[in-house]
Structures are given as structure tokens and as C-alpha cells.
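Protein fold
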Amino acid sequence: MIKIDVWKNVLRILDTYLEMNNHRKTPERYTILKAIYNIHGHFTLEDLSDKLIRDYNFPVSRATLYNTLNLFMQLRLVIRHRFQGSTVYEACYDNTSHCHQICTVCGKVTEVKSDLISNAIDATHLKRFHKDGFTLYIYGICSTCQAKLTRLRNKELKKKQTTNKI
């Protein structure tokens, strides 16, 4: 469920932009925006399309989704992440800054909040630049993949030891 104050601000941003640039206020734009702000976390273009059909009975073309997402990115209502082999989006108005752990083996992405990192970035003074927020990508191997790799190594080591005894 969208927070009322967030939704009012998001709508105000979109309305103001459309009015100032003489663009039409189409039902597609507003329904897509509502669907995005009812998705918690990352979503793909396919996830968004499925949600529009399933929850709103509102199918739209892939081109409409791309164009609308590009508009929302310009307005800083949506952010795009390019993780290993995939592109995902996320509603970003009133979104707290956060880190992403990305497994380089399976591609799993986990959001992490770190006060230590947030405080360090907040304390960093940048010349002629106003910070709005941040997203940090931390690459490594998740515990599941690490366990699989360890089991595989142990299996190979046992095999090698057995072969050397013969």
C-alpha cells in the first residue's frame, strides 16, 4: 500500500511536469505509476507488465512501459539498476539510501542497510554537488554459493587423495 503523503507528492511531481511541458495526462502514465509504487523492492519490466494485467486489468505495450519508465527516471520517481545480466527498476521517491549485495555466482541481489556507510557518505562533503541519496553495489559470493563451492572443492580433494593412494 502506498503511503498517502508519498503518493500525493509523486502525483504532484508528475502533474506539474506534464502541465509545464504540455504533455497529456494519460491513464497509462498514472496507472503505471500507481503499479510501480505498489511494488515493494525491485521489479523487472515483465513484473510490471504482469502486475498491470493481474491487479489493474490494464495491459500496455512494451514500448509504452519503456517510454513511461524513461519519463519517470527523468523525474527521479524511478531508478534503474543494472545487475549481472538483468535490468531492474525501483520506486525511489522518499526511498532511503541503501546497499545491494550481489552474488557473482548466482546473481542473487539482497538489499542491506548500513548506518556506518550512510553516516560516512552523509559526512562526505563534495564540491559543487548536492547529494540526494546513494546506492552502493557490493559484489561477492552468497553463503549458499560459497557452501556449494566448498562442497565441490572438498569432493575434488577427496577424489584426488583417493587417486594418490592407489
Summary: The chain has a mean pLDDT of 90.
